[in-house]
Design brief:
It is a single chain. This protein is mainly alpha-helical. Strands 3-2-1-4 form a 4-stranded mixed sheet, with helices on both faces. Strand 1 and strand 2 form a beta hairpin. It is elongated and about 130 Å long.
Length: 357
């Protein structure tokens, strides 16, 4: 498999980069159809209330036809019709805003992209626009959706007409008011059923857009390696940095060895340096430890500094595996370490007496 084939699932960093650019899966069909359906249902539920406002507006206008307009009444004459029209259209405004925002947020989450406000010459470039409209896969898919919408509306109209053919024939023999009422019900059923089916088409389109976006975000093996280098740093440089950090840490640790009270060894593989300051610490602490080569270095520094080295295999292993540098020894080792330090202090005292004599 070639390293240039985009077969790897996108990383979280790549997903975040696409999201920052505003490049997310979103179906415009779902938003537009949702707005149409919401607007249509708003009209259905508020049509009576809107007619009442319209009748009030008509009555207001007829009552003032013969009125002369002057500076005293012009404000009322102009403001009332505007207020009535605003009341009539307010449900549509609310429905459109709420549904359009809700449909977008439901698909992408809350997203504000700076790229949406940046000028891009390719958006107005005729050549790129021609290619985008006529030669891209997206344009063929949009054409397919448009044809499918026409087919859906056509089939729904056909089935509703067939199911209502008897009612339509009977309507021709009725009064104008009955014809208008039945026609209204017929148109309502046609529009509502069409929009509901188109809404399912919108959901299908959203699923397809999600699939397309996942394919677009897929990465090659090389892209994953490059991203790892960018996020974590070059492995070689990172290795050198860790090596330098270990060297600095070891040097700092070696500087603590001459201050230790005792070096506990096992005797060849492990070496642990202990220090006890009654004023600062409630228990002895491990100031240095090492295995194999590092253990030999600790013992060499201890010999040069005159720090006593005591062999205790079990204690050395327990301290090496269970206590980190800078930590106090566990309570379970208090007695053993106390006896060891008492022995060391006694030896140091005897050495001091011999040196004075």
């Amino acid at each position: 498999m070639s390293d240039q084939e985009k077969t790897q699932q996108p990383t979280e960093h790549r997903r975040e980069e696409f999201r920052k650019k505003g490049d997310v899966a979103k179906s415009r069909e779902l938003v537009s159809i949702g707005v149409l359906l919401g607007g249509f249902l708003t009209l259905y539920f508020f049509i009576g209330w809107m007619f009442e406002l319209y009748n009030e507006l008509q009555l207001f206008i007829f009552q003032r036809i013969n009125f002369s307009i002057n500076s005293d009444n012009i404000g009322q004459i102009l403001s009332y019709p505007i207020l009535q029209m605003f009341k009539m259209l307010m449900p549509f405004f609310i429905a459109v805003v709420v549904i359009s925002i809700g449909a977008n947020v439901a698909q992408t989450g809350f997203l504000v992209s700076e790229n949406a406000f940046k000028f891009d010459f390719s958006r107005i470039n005729p050549a790129s626009k021609f290619k985008q409209i006529f030669l891209s896969k997206q344009s063929f898919f949009e054409l397919f959706k448009a044809i499918l919408k026409l087919v859906i509306v056509g089939l729904i109209s056909w089935f509703i007409i067939l199911s209502s053919i008897g009612l339509i024939i009977d309507t021709l023999q009725r009064q104008i008011s009955d014809i208008l009422s039945i026609t209204g019900v017929f148109v309502f059923k046609l529009i509502l059923n069409s929009l509901i089916l188109l809404l399912f088409l919108g959901f299908a389109d959203f699923i397809f857009q999600k699939f397309q976006m996942e394919e677009k975000m897929k990465m090659t093996h090389q892209e994953i390696k490059d991203e790892y280098k960018q996020m974590e740093g070059d492995p070689f440089v990172k290795s050198k940095r860790r090596s330098k950090q270990r060297e600095i840490s070891m040097n700092r640790m070696m500087q603590e060895v001459p201050q230790a009270d005792v070096i506990v060894t096992n005797p060849t593989h492990f070496a642990v340096a202990l220090k006890y300051d009654r004023k600062k610490n409630r228990a002895p602490i491990v100031v240095a430890k090492g295995a194999d080569f590092l253990a030999q270095k600790i013992k060499e520094v201890a010999k040069d500094s005159g720090v006593q080295i005591v062999e205790n295999k079990m204690l050395a292993r327990a301290l090496y595996w269970n206590v980190d540098i800078g930590d106090s020894i566990p309570e379970s080792l208090f007695k053993t370490v106390a006896e060891l330090l008492a022995y060391v202090y006694k030896r140091n005292k005897e050495k001091g007496k011999r040196w004075l004599s």
